[in-house]
Amino acid sequence: MSVRFGVNYTPARGWFFHWLDFDLDAVRRDLDSIAGLGLDHIRVFPLWPVFQPNRNLVRANAIRDLLAVVDAAAERGLDVAVDGLQGHLSSFDFRPSWTVSWHRRNMFTDPDVVAGEAFYLNTLATALADRPNFLGMTLGNEVNQFSDKPHPDPDPVGVDEAESWLHRLLAACEDGAPGKFHTHCAYDAVWLQDGHPFTPAHAARIGAATNVHSWVFNGTAQRYGGDSAATAHYAEYQVELAAAWATDPAHPVWLQEVGAPAPHIPAERAGEFAAATVANALSCPNLWGITWWCSHDVSRELADFPELEYGLGLFTNDNQRKPAGQAIADAVAAQKTAPAQRIPRKTALVLDVGDEHTAPARSTCGPGGEFFEAWLRLARQGARPAVVRASVAHDAEHLAARGISEVVHVPDVWSSKHA
């Protein structure tokens, strides 16, 4: 299976506010630049309040504009994945008025709100279903951040309720566009935050793929340095962590977001970071694709974004290719001529974070945690370690399916054998 390469599409003109003042010619210019990198797909973000301003209304003109983007992408050989509940983007929340203030209702548990979400996602999926370049829906961007701290006004939800919500909304997508690549995604609290209601099991066992969002500003670059092995291997680590939680050894993992955030990754090193991150991720056997964040910088004309958000693009606002963009283009070209070898990882580090349903001790997987430190030590030694859950660490069939021949525990990594 060849790895897919794409980018999260952030319009050069107006950021995601472009849906309010849609300009197809501007979109086409952006897509010309993206296609010039040799990429094969984009991820697109409708703004939820713009598309569904009332619980019973999905705007026909908004759907028309979305289809125009998908069709323009097809003309340039680009497939399109579409996110639904936007949700949360670059530190801003976008929730329709019928879920906030005087209509404040829990987006995960209120029956009317969930029915409205299902109606919206089904409407999008149905409209997109006949487009041959439509990959599938992602429920929304990192919607798990609404469920727990540090969000200032969370919608509390239990682990079982979160699972039911995911199944309900993915079923709405499947009903609208049967057989497509429908997924859900989360920011890394799902893997690293004890007590978070969205769990690793949810991420890896529900949906067509496990989606990973890898950001080294989560403490990795701060603790180890922007030019460290930990930072260069972090996306690879998260892909392997995600693969471990799947019950199907062949379940695909989509590195759906990864980027080079300044100042943790200085602008002059963004290309080098991109090249190293991609090369390391490509060694993962279950990798479906890499979708870089993001296509274009946020314009300095727009206020109040966190500083790091302004410079994450592969292109400037006038569609000039940046060093990270060139690094991605080079990686794509190299894959076409000499694909990276995805050799099964023979050594696996055993992960035990308690009950698999709730993963109560998952913080050990984060930067500075014992499990992460042990995995990183193996990686520095060139082991290309996999991760295996404790419950299947002695399951010969599972290990064989993943090509694992040696299982080590965290204390073993610090023994003389692995020193």
From TrEMBL:
Listed InterPro entries: GH
Protein name: Glycosyl hydrolase
Organism of this sequence: Crossiella cryophila
